[in-house]
Design brief:
2 copies of one chain form a homodimer. Chain A is α/β, with parallel strands linked by helices and about 350 residues long. Chain A contains 10 helices and 18 strands.
């Protein structure tokens, strides 16, 4: 192929393949060292070829959020975790046609009941993880009586194979957060499971910010990080990686310098998403001018404040911007470009893009 | 077709066709009454059939932001305004192959020079509007000497037809904002044009929040509203329409009620975008429970706080949510559904979706 980066039009997501490979290997090694099953969340890349690469490096399976993502990722792995309650006939019928072993994490007897009916109709057995709330207050029942009841209802339903418990510690944003409370929560949850007479073979947790602390959380035996393949400004701000671990940048062109002290780039919320970080202001880091502040955006316009930046930018100049949140940015692009040594080595269609259902 | 809404899976954007038609007619009538050219911005709907409907109702042409949108909309109109500086050979070459009359609004001699070269190579004449800054400080040169110079540079370049001036009053968020300053700005800009000896045949401004005030801005003869076709929470919050003028809602399903006082719906930032309004907190209005606060989102999770809401919601219930910003939501959906009397009458592919370049 050997296309030059200069020949790409903007805005475009570039993936530095050397950095990506290093990120993938580092986490695979960490999981192996600590005997943790790795089931990466593919919502970050949404690309079957990258799912397959994660499996080749030792991942036990892949995680998705939506049935549409499972349909896309099924050719990359024999083992899929749908980390989202699947509600409604239409989605369940589609899920039953996905040709891998399937586990679903869910948090209600209602969701378990619907899944059981679908599994029976399809003559399949579907794995289930009972989701508990480790502090994010999103999905997941509180640990205690309600978890006990949820596990019991799963155990009683035909077509379901209770495999364990799952949680997502998304409320902890800093890599240095104390994990004692999480350990206690997991232990408490495991006690609730034991009280039903069942065994939690899988204890699935982990997020990218807390990734490197996973082995300190007593009881966890599976992690599902997503962002680590590319990393982003959020990951750096949460102290879970360095700037030079960020594999994905968005190549943008300066299209206006009409307002003094500012440049407008051709990437706004349609290119980056309007996700903020919970820590630092702004919408991304301009690699060519780290002191610049990407302070505002509209759909097609990125406003970059150049106060305190020595370098002069002209219309037509190109900049590489590390996005706040790479998962949502990937969802906005039809394809992305894998680059190495200044050349485009890979063009990947983002096949899992826009799978809302 | 006569599909029932109940048969649609979620999340999905529904367009109430009666409300949409009323919105379209109302603005077409307003423009006719005040002898304003109407060149609607199609970034809101991104659907050629709806562009064609705007033309059928009397619009003089259509507006787009990106060349990719021009490629999609060219079959709906003989007249396109690209309201964005087109920079770089690749985009300019594609623009020259768009088979309509084309006008580009731009704010630099550099952009004008590139456009002139492309026009000459293609043997075409391209219309140009000089963009000035009416207070948003995004693109657009300040009114004064720099506008004068910009107009002169456009006039001198072969292949370009100077047609007038353009601005976007995006800094005025409330329908009751005073427009005196904008009038003064337009008059000042027109003076700068006259000083070059040229005539501004087109004076293009207007946004949805200020739409109904356009006739008060002295000198304007063209408006380019976009959002008015559907309206959204932003439009209501800016006092430019009522809730029952909102044609687009996002149908979502309740997937978790595990946290007391809260429900999780299956639409988050991948479904709505994470755009906030500049006025009211939250990410949308739940039609079935207007007192509910859609207070937080992740990619696939919408957190709806139910404090103060009498109605009980269960897993599997469906709700209609008016999004903060309908343009960016449309960009996230492959297709949308036109509904009337409880039935799905139209399924439109969002053909202009994701046209970043």
């Amino acid at each position: 192929m050997a296309m030059q980066i200069e020949s790409l039009d903007t805005p475009a997501i570039l993936i530095d393949l050397d950095i990506m490979d290093r990120n993938l290997s580092r986490v695979a090694d960490y999981a192996r060292l600590h005997k943790l099953r790795l089931r990466p969340h593919t919502k970050t890349h949404k690309i079957p070829a990258l799912g397959a690469r994660q499996i080749a490096l030792g991942a036990a399976g892949l995680t998705v959020a939506k049935v549409g993502e499972a349909e896309v990722m099924q050719r990359s792995t024999p083992d899929l975790l749908v980390a989202y309650p699947v509600i409604g006939r239409s989605k369940l019928d589609r899920l039953m046609r996905v040709d891998t072993d399937i586990t679903v994490s869910l948090d209600s007897a209602e969701a378990a009941g619907q899944l059981s009916q679908a599994a029976q109709s399809a003559g399949r057995t579907i794995g289930v993880l009972a989701e508990f709330d480790a502090g994010l207050h999103r999905v997941g029942v509180p640990v205690g009586q309600r978890l006990h009841e949820l596990v019991r209802s799963i155990l009683e339903l035909p077509g379901l194979d209770f495999r364990g418990i799952a949680f997502y510690p998304g409320h902890l944003k800093d890599a240095a957060s104390p994990v004692d409370e999480m350990s206690a929560s997991v232990q408490h949850a495991l006690g609730q499971v034991r009280a039903t007479g069942a065994e939690a073979r899988i204890v699935s947790g982990g997020s990218t910010p807390l990734l490197w602390r996973s082995h300190e959380v007593q009881g966890i035996n599976e992690i599902r990080p997503g962002t680590y393949i590319f990393n982003d400004r959020n990951t750096v701000e949460s102290n879970a990686c360095q700037w030079d671990d960020c594999a994905a940048t968005i190549l943008c062109t300066v299209v206006s310098t009409a307002v003094d002290g500012q440049m407008i780039i051709d990437g706004g919320s349609k290119t980056f998403s309007s996700d903020r970080t919970s820590i630092a202001p702004g919408f991304g880091r301009v690699t060519e001018a780290p002191a610049a502040v990407f302070e505002k955006m509209n759909e097609e316009h990125g406003y970059v404040n150049l106060a305190g930046v020595d370098r002069k930018f002209s219309i037509g100049d190109r900049v590489h911007v590390i996005p706040n949140h790479v998962c949502v940015a990937m969802n906005l692009h039809e394809q992305v470009y894998g680059v190495r040594n200044g050349r485009v080595d890979e063009v990947w269609k983002v096949e899992g893009r826009g799978k809302l259902q």
